[in-house]
From TrEMBL:
Species this chain originates from: Tripterygium wilfordii
Pfam families named in the record: IGPS
Protein name: indole-3-glycerol-phosphate synthase
EC annotation from Swiss-Prot or TrEMBL: 4.1.1.48
One of the record's GO molecular function terms: indole-3-glycerol-phosphate synthase activity
Superkingdom to which the source organism belongs: Eukaryota
Keywords for this protein: Amino-acid biosynthesis, Aromatic amino acid biosynthesis, Decarboxylase, Lyase, Tryptophan biosynthesis
InterPro entries: Aldolase_TIM, Indole-3-glycerol_P_synth, Indole-3-glycerol_P_synth_dom, Indole-3-GlycerolPSynthase_CS, RibuloseP-bd_barrel
Pathway: Amino-acid biosynthesis; L-tryptophan biosynthesis; L-tryptophan from chorismate: step 4/5
The keyword Lyase is assigned to this record: yes
């Protein structure tokens, strides 16, 4: 068996005390395997490399099958660990999937604890991601990428999402509005009981929204891809953002088949390379990518990624649900704001915006667009909700 097994030393053992050693290491799916233990980082992480494949004994068919399934499981586990390790090196704490196998391993005098131990998510975002990861692999199995091809060819043409935001900003002198069709959220519960996504989207368009965001996650937001498709099919002209937790490029293609013109990429869950790669796919498909950040570290990462044109600053911490619109201002101050202006990136202020004062505040901070859900989706008449949010009717305003 080859590959890396990651283990963490308990505090009882110090680095200096661990030379390169040959050990039999407990593996999550194998009782034990021969391993060389090496220190690979300055932290507490050790890399443990199996030194030799175990010689296969003569096996019957069933044993061979079991062995093959084991090897596959081990590979999946290893890839997951590597993904998590790359993510962790970029400050991403959200893990892709729960850890499997027993968390503690004993090797000779050492006690090893697997990284990312535990099978319970440490916050709501992680819970959503674990659920999504499973959901996507099942969907993908049922409709692999090649099977989406025909639907992709038949999808309605893309609309210019960023162009619509810029045009709205120029037309009104106010941030372009991305109005969100959202029935519920884990932090706020049900926002609207009599929820007709198409009626709401039409109301938004009438009220002067530049673009529309449609939640497609079922379990946590009570959204759906049917909603997205229905809005696109109902004659709404605004470009559409598919508001989803994207982990796999397959989801981008799928969103496109349902009529999306833009997708969301959350920096708290996606490593830089994924963001770069997915941004490229969007470009290829004629879509826009809204890359969402919540703190300085994520903003700095995203500013270093080539091809990012649209950044959303989420005022809501998706791990704790705390909302602070001061976050938008904080992330646009000083050098960061300067770099954003130089790169011509459009910034979207997201979440927790309710009043004309709030809009004014984030506009002064430097945003050219806003993403608003709760305050307008709750209104009986969403168009009037928009007028209330901006303090004036923005549906016909044209700057002269
Ligand atoms: O309803 P609000 O507070 O106006 O927020 C809208 C939008 O910003 C929020 O729904 C959101 C921002 N980023 C997300 C990521 C996933 C799900 C939802 C979101």
């Amino acid at each position: 068996m080859e590959g890396l097994v990651y283990a963490r030393m308990t505090p009882r053992v110090s680095f200096q005390a661990v030379p390169s050693l040959n050990y039999r290491l407990c593996h999550p799916f194998k009782r034990s395997i021969p391993a060389t233990v090496m220190v690979v980082g300055r932290g507490r992480t050790l890399s443990v490399r199996p030194i030799r494949a175990q010689q296969p004994e003569t096996k019957d068919g069933a044993a061979e099958k079991e062995e093959a399934a084991d090897v596959l499981k081990v590979k999946e586990w290893e890839v997951g660990m590597l993904q998590d390790e790359v993510a962790a090196s970029q400050g991403i704490s959200i893990r892709r999937r729960p850890q499997t196998g027993s968390p503690v391993h004993y090797v000779g005098p050492f006690e090893f604890r697997l990284q990312n131990e535990g099978n319970t998510p440490s916050n709501i975002l992680e819970e959503i991601i674990w659920h999504k990861d499973k959901e996507v692999s099942e969907l993908k199995e049922r409709r692999p990428l090649y099977a989406l091809k025909k639907a992709l060819d038949d999808a309605p043409p893309t609309r210019d999402f960023i162009g619509a935001l810029k045009a709205a900003h120029q037309r009104t002198g106010l941030p372009g509005l991305i109005a969100e069709v959202k029935k519920a959220s884990p932090s706020r519960g049900i926002l609207r009981e009599n929820f007709d996504p198409v009626e709401i989207a039409k109301g938004y368009e009438k009220g002067g929204a530049a673009c529309i965001s449609v939640l497609t996650d079922k379990k946590y937001f009570q959204g759906s891809f049917e909603n997205l498709e229905a809005i696109r099919g109902a004659g709404v002209k605004c470009p559409l953002l598919c508001k989803e937790f994207i982990l796999d490029a397959w989801q981008i293609y799928y969103a496109r088949t349902k009529g999306a013109d833009a997708i969301l990429l959350i920096a708290a869950v996606l490593p830089n390379l994924d963001i770069r790669y997915m941004t490229k796919i969007c470009m290829m498909l004629g879509m826009a990518a809204l890359v969402e950040v919540h703190d300085e570290r994520e903003m700095d990462r995203v500013l270093g990624i080539e091809g990012v044109e649209l950044i959303g600053i989420n005022n809501r911490n998706l791990e704790t649900f705390e909302v602070d619109i001061g976050n938008t201002k904080k992330l646009l101050e000083g050098d960061r704001g300067q770099r954003i202006r130089e790169k011509g990136i459009i910034v979207v202020g997201e979440s927790g915006l309710f009043t004309p004062d709030d809009i004014n505040y984030v506009q002064e901070a430097g945003v050219k667009a806003v993403l608003v859900g709760e305050s307008i989706v709750k209104q009986d008449d969403p168009a009037k909700g928009i007028t209330g949010l901006f303090g004036r009717d923005i549906s016909f305003v044209t700057l002269t």
